[in-house]
């Protein structure tokens, strides 16, 4: 009986799917700013079409087509010709709030974090003039009686696989060496040194260390991090398996977190040696001030509290030159003091501004509350319509790791779930205005509680929980959780959404593809599946295409 029921279910799922899943796409990211991109695309597209795929999500910045030069537009015409000949539908990727594609419209669109500091007026300028932050024995030069470094409150495997090394060092008398190959390693294979560090709130810090490796695996298990334990993302990851002394450094905003721990080392090391030395942390000054609605500049006398007036006591502060400029690597922004100002040389100023939010590895999300972005969406949608007039539009709205922190967001008195859903609604409206019958796809992670739809998400203020109930039901959810693919497809299907499978994900085998293929066929209203590669790995594209195009589900 069970068998028969399964057979009926399978037959129903296959109705109208003689060639497999309806949408069988691959992901392709290139900007077509050079002719070589075209040749590469044609080769990948031919492989895809030859193995049964019928569409491509192209991430080529088409959202700014209205600003492209003639050569780039001509190359895109060639892309259209190639796809028409190969019978591949083009779904352009557009509008990433998480990875800041909107910064093309205005660098001040970045999500912004409050910054406050005491600046000093000297002559006709006032600027940040930092406090030093004592960080003794960041160079592992002084050891305690047990042989472990002074000041460091925790070293994994002290004396077992972690050693002060006087032979190999970057500076001073010694470094700290981890032997990741030892059989004495802990279950979690952590090889880290850490200590507490007390920071000021809403201040900028640059942390650095030097790293040397020898046969170190996996190389991306190296990480330097400053963690408060509250969802923050202040870290840099990665080294080479074998490298001479190399500096690792990054800048971060302390936000509301005073008590933090600084970590250097490996999470999950399996082999080789890792040395760290000369760890330091310093306060740095902001190099850009965000100037837009919701990001006021406030300057007062630090002693008397008297407020100064922009345009009278100090010249208007310029906006963001580039959200990618890391404070501490560029000169700090300055206030120019005009004649007749109430600010006098030697005055100490309490300065509050907003600075670009930086998260994870140099990622710059945008503020979804800023209505100016709607103008860009309208321009952009009209451009995409003129360039391609696609039926399928793919919103690149994944991993939005900052937001809710500027006064514009706070004044809305809501959470990230509502801010996000409202933004998606505005994106949808901009598309529907130029293409009423558009199918609109979106990455599903910001709407799935098992991925990113929760509270304490990186630098966000307010929860994303419940976002799945707020977004229009005609948006197609591209599920890409590799671990929870079955649960995620079911979650959105049960809520009444159409779904799409973001499969493959740069793995080395097609094991998961068989499962995605089966799940996508069994899930009601699942439109198809996509070969999704971030690393331009197309080696398995042909067999992938055959699996998802076959009339029946095939077993591995
Ligand atoms: Ca040292
Ligand atoms: Zn905001």
Beta-strand portion reads 25-35%
- Across the major sheet, the strand order is 1-2-3-19-21-23-24-25
| Shape label | globular
Give every kind of bound small molecule, once each: calcium ion, zinc ion
Rg of Cα set: 27 Å
Per the CATH scheme, the topology name of the largest domain is TIM Barrel
Low-confidence stretches: 1-18
Number of domains: 3
Task: Write up this protein.
There is one protein chain. With 556 residues, this protein is an alpha/beta fold. The protein has three domains: 295 residues, Glycosidases (TIM Barrel, Alpha-Beta Barrel); 90 residues; 131 residues, Galactose-binding domain-like (Jelly Rolls). The longest helix has 19 residues. The protein is globular and about 75 Å long. The two termini are 26 Å apart. The N terminus is likely disordered. Zinc ion (ZN) binds next to α5. The site of zinc ion has 8 residues, from α5.
Write the layout of secondary structure elements.
Elements: H1 2-14, E1 23-29, H2 35-50, E2 55-59, H3 70-86, E3 89-94, E4 112-122, E5 125-128, E6 154-155, E7 162-165, E8 175-179, E9 190-198, E10 204-217, E11 222-227, E12 235-237, E13 243-253, E14 259-267, E15 271-284, E16 298-301, E17 334-336, E18 348-356, H4 372-387, E19 392-395, E20 402-403, H5 407-411, H6 416-434, E21 439-443, E22 459-460, E23 475-479, H7 485-494, E24 499-504, H8 511-522, E25 526-532, H9 541-549
Parallel strand pairs: 1-2, 1-25, 2-3, 3-19, 19-21, 20-22, 21-23, 23-24, 24-25
Antiparallel strand pairs: 4-5, 4-18, 5-17, 6-9, 7-8, 8-15, 9-14, 10-13, 10-15, 11-12, 11-14, 16-18
Bound molecules: calcium ion and zinc ion.
Zinc ion is lined by residues 111, 294, 367, 369, 403, 406, 408-409.
